[in-house]
Design goal:
single chain; 208 residues; alpha/beta; five-stranded parallel β-sheet
Length: 208
């Protein structure tokens, strides 16, 4: 409840249980238990972060990446970052986990998705699952509106990628089918902040 809110110290999350390399604590639920994000869990293998401006998307994304990068060496996790706004993911621009410099240009982002799709196919044939590759896309709805191929590529990768160690985390102000289209059904995990309307929340989470 609003009157009872207080700052959540990170040591309460990190020390709450023994971490595995693919776990990241997201917060404390209504029952008082820590809520976890786990890349290895098929219910969380791809994640949508949704919410209006200043609803906490960027902070949640930075925390998630910080945990995963701190807990995983290069041989276990590699990173692709797409940042059309050119500012949300800059704190990670020098990360050694990056497979490519942070991408801001639409052409670069589409090429990265095509490469990821090809890599997914090759891994399926060869039975490769390591290192895991995590692609993070900020403001994904803008990209979908500007280039129709983005939605199809996301759908393809989200459908098959987790089985070969490829994962997607996307952020958008308007979560739901308008942002991701058919790809949305293959994003089993939704982390939502404040949305502009109950309709948008229902489209993303299945309830108002």
């Amino acid at each position: 409840p609003k009157g009872e809110r207080k700052t959540l110290l990170t040591n309460r999350l990190v020390d709450a249980r023994r971490l595995t390399s693919l776990h990241a604590p997201l917060g404390v639920g209504t029952t008082g238990q820590v809520v976890w994000y786990d890349l290895a869990d098929e219910r969380m293998c791809h994640l949508v972060l949704g919410g209006t401006t200043r609803s906490g998307k960027t902070n949640a994304l930075h925390w998630l990446l910080t945990c995963l990068l701190k807990q995983n060496p290069l041989g276990r996790l590699r990173l692709l970052l797409a940042d059309p706004k050119r500012r949300e993911l800059t704190p990670f621009a020098l990360s050694r986990h990056l497979l490519h410099p942070v991408m801001c240009d639409l052409t670069q982002i589409v090429k990265a998705l095509l490469w990821l799709q090809d890599t997914m196919t090759e891994r399926a044939v060869e039975g490769i699952t390591q290192p895991r590759i995590l692609m993070v896309i900020d403001e994904v709805r803008q990209l979908v509106r500007r280039e129709r191929r983005v939605q199809n590529l996301l759908s393809s990768i989200a459908e098959m990628g987790a089985g070969v160690g490829i994962h997607l985390v996307v952020a958008t102000q308007q979560p739901g089918a308008k942002a991701l289209g058919e790809a949305l059904v293959n994003f089993p995990a939704r982390l939502l902040g404040r949305a502009a309307s109950a309709t948008l929340t229902y489209g993303a989470a299945g309830r108002a």
